[in-house]
C-alpha cells in the first residue's frame, strides 16, 4: 500500500508542477478508508512569498491557489489518472492551503476503501 500512496503523491506533484508552475517541496499521502489525504509542504513560489507580506496579498494568493486547484481537479483526464492508479472513482475533492504555514491539504474521496489495497 505504501507503494501506491507514494505513486499517488508523485502524481499529485506532477500535476501541481504542470498546472501551478511548481510542485510542493514535500508531499505525503495516506489512504484512510475511501479517502486519499495528501499533505503538501513548500508550495508557494518566490513571488507568492513576497506577496503574502500584506493582508491583501495573503487573501489574493489563497484565493488564486484554491480556485486554481479546484479548476485543475475538474479536468476529467486528470481525475482518470488518479482513478486508474487506485482502481476507484472519485466522488469529491476538498482542498485548502494555509498561506502562513505554506501547507496545503487535498482530500480525495473515492467510491470504495483504498486502505485494503496490497502491493
How would you characterize the overall build of this protein?
By secondary structure, the chain is an alpha+beta fold. The chain has one domain: Threonyl-tRNA Synthetase, Chain A, domain 2 (2-Layer Sandwich), CATH 3.30.980. Helix content is 45%, strand content 26%. The chain has helices at residues 2-20, 46-51, 55-72, 76-86; strands at 26-32, 35-41, 90-98, 103-110. Strands 1-2-4-3 form a four-stranded antiparallel sheet, covered by helices on one side. A hairpin with a 2-residue loop joins β1 (26-32) and β2. α1 crosses α3 and α1 packs antiparallel against α4 (76-86). It is elongated. The relative contact order is 0.22. The model has no long low-confidence stretch (mean pLDDT 92).
- Give the radius of gyration: 15 Å
CATH architecture: 2-Layer Sandwich
State the distance separating the first and last CA atoms. Answer: 5 Å
Largest sheet: 4 strands, antiparallel
* Tally of distinct domains: 1
Mean pLDDT: 92
Shape: elongated
Low-confidence stretches: none
| CATH domain class | Alpha Beta
Order of helices and strands: HEEHHHEE
Strand order of the largest sheet: 1-2-4-3
Protein name: Na+-translocating membrane potential-generating system MpsC domain-containing protein
Domain Na+-translocating membrane potential-generating system MpsC: 2-112
InterPro entries: MpsC (IPR018745)
Amino acid at each position: 500500500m505504501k507503494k501506491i500512496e507514494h505513486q499517488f503523491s508523485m502524481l499529485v506533484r506532477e500535476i501541481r508542477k504542470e498546472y501551478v508552475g511548481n510542485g510542493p517541496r514535500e508531499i505525503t499521502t495516506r489512504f484512510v478508508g475511501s479517502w486519499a489525504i495528501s499533505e503538501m509542504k513548500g508550495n508557494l513560489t518566490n513571488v507568492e512569498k513576497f506577496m503574502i507580506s500584506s493582508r491583501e496579498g495573503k487573501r489574493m494568493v489563497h484565493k488564486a491557489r484554491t480556485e486554481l486547484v479546484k479548476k485543475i481537479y475538474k479536468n476529467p483526464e486528470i481525475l482518470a489518472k488518479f482513478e486508474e492508479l487506485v482502481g476507484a472513482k472519485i466522488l469529491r475533492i476538498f482542498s485548502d492551503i494555509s498561506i502562513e504555514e505554506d501547507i496545503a491539504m487535498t482530500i480525495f474521496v473515492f467510491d470504495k476503501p483504498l486502505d485494503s489495497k496490497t502491493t
